[in-house]
Amino acid sequence: MKEYKVFLYTEGIFSSIFFNGGKVDPVKLTNALNMQAAQGWQVKTMEREKRRTLLFFSREAFVFILEKDA
Questions:
Q1: pTM of the model
Q2: In CATH, what number does 2-69 get?
Q3: Using CA atoms, how far apart are residues 26 and 32, in angstroms rounded to an integer?
Q4: Where do runs of H (alpha helix) occur along 2-46?
Q5: Where on the phi/psi map is residue 22: left (φ > 0), alpha (ψ -120 to 50), or beta?
Q6: Alpha helix ranges (H) inside 39-70
Q7: Which residue of 17, 37, 39, 49 has the fewest CB atoms within a 10 Å radius of its CB?
């Protein structure tokens, strides 16, 4: 039997707007996924989307479906 979890990853609002234009930092994303993997989760599928923030700004977000044995 499998267990599933939805994991949403986005950068913080202020770091996205002021430091790198709403792009996800690959090192931080890697660390976040490695933390999930340490708990036994594996990425089943992933979707990238743009999310509007503070009326005029947008930032990247990643939605992961994670899977592990129950």
A1: 0.75
A2: 3.30.110
A3: 10
A4: 13-18, 26-38
A5: left
A6: none
A7: 39
